[in-house]
Description:
The chain is α/β, with parallel strands linked by helices. It has 3 domains: 11-67, CATH 2.40.50.140; 100-128 and 290-456, Vaccinia Virus protein VP39 (Rossmann fold); 136-284, CATH 2.40.50.1070. It is 25% helix and 30% strand. It has helices at 80-83, 93-111, 171-187, 229-239, 293-307, 324-330, 343-355, 368-377, 396-405, 417-427; strands spanning 12-20, 26-30, 33-37, 45-53, 57-67, 136-142, 149-153, 160-162, 201-208, 215-221, 243-250, 262-268, 271-276, 279-284, 314-317, 335-340, 361-365, 384-387, 409-414, 431-439, 449-456. Strands 8-7-6-9-10-11-12 form a 7-stranded mixed β-sheet, covered by helices on one side. A 7-stranded mixed β-sheet has the order 17-16-15-18-19-21-20, with helices on both faces. Helix 4 links the parallel strand 10 (215-221) and strand 11 (243-250). Helix 3 packs antiparallel against helix 4 (229-239). The protein is globular, with a radius of gyration of 24 Å.
Amino acid sequence: xxEQAVIQVGQEFPLTIKRLGINGEGVGFFKRNVVxxxxxxxxxxxxxxxTEAKNKYAEAxxxxxxxxxxxxxxxxCLIYDACGGCQLQHMTYERQLIExxxxxxxxxxxxxxDLAPQIEVKQTIGMEDPWNYRNKSQFQVRKPGNKVIxxxxxxxxxxxxxxxxxxxxxxxxxxxxxxxxxxxQKLNIPIYDEKNPQGIVRTIVVRTGMKTGQIQVTLVTTxxxxxxxxxxxxLIRAIDSNIVSISQNINAEKTSLVFxxxxxxxxxxxxxxxxxxxxxxxxxxxxxxQLNPEQTEHLYNEIxxxxxxxxxxxxxxxxxxxxxxxxxxxKNAKEVRGMDIIEESIQDAKKNAKRNGFxxxxxxxxxxxxxLGKWKNEGFVPDVLTVDPPRAGLDDELLKTILDIKPKRxxxxxxxxxxxxxxxxxxxxxxxxxxxxxVDMFPQTSHVECVVKLELKKS
Length: 459
């Protein structure tokens, strides 16, 4: 058996890219070492130059493309390489959809190897126009030197990239952010800096209702008191007559989390109105709502299809947010219950249920494992459980709870194939995976969403 060769930083060698990695990087193999190459595409032959060498893998950059993929295109974004917010603009969109399905298959082969060949992974559902789809921007604000900038951090760095135009964002979100940057500069309002405790403004959040046109602006600050606050609010109001909600959220912690616990309304309503299919929703500043509403309708239709509701089933919507998934299912369910750890989201969910005329819903504040256990003790076990967890997947306690209460049908919506496949290691003890349907919620990035239909095994 050949020994694994030692790779050194700076070393160059020819490399054939075999597949795409979970972060959108090309993956090749050199003398038994896995080599990850940012910007390389499957099928390409490159000269790789090692930038980091570890025990069993290396990271490299493209020194030269010897044989380019037919799927390689010129990224239309001028700051694509610097920003890092998108990972796949250099690949045709048709190929992106193929590779995202493959990322799901790779995850299954890694974590549930024996089951992987038996699991049907359907073709990825994509977009007709995969640009300008994001309805919300969250741009960090800093002031290096004398200029206020706002944008995203470059990949794996603390360098903030000033973004004046983002072609995956709805144009109105970046336009308003740019205007606010100018106001902060003009009014000389102190800007947050990790090293400067006197800084105040740290993030500009802009959300637009794709169907309604209503716009919500939230300024995340380190403290409530802010100089020229009233003047700033008046200037923001004047940018666009569709701005119907301006809020201030306080986050004084040294954290990567955008929002703090406290939000104040500065102008207009506390929420904006948005529509999704036949449903209408009110969204407060911190409320979670899918970032790509067009694809969200496809996603929720797939959840509805997998749930196979006849009107007789009880449904629990864990991680319910403002109630979107549960309300999408409510018209065909006997009862829908949901829970979330953000109190404002539960209040929004209750209002949204009432607004849409549903009386068969119940929303509670707390964790899924807490409420599912409590309801089981009261004699309530849902016929259908649907979850849409964060990227970390289901926590161990919730997994144990699901395996304990055993809903007959379980619809798992995942935004991370790796954690999905890890969770399937446990779930497939009592569930059969009927199929996985990938949905492209974030074109031009390496992210892929999946709807997984699981059914309790027949004893």
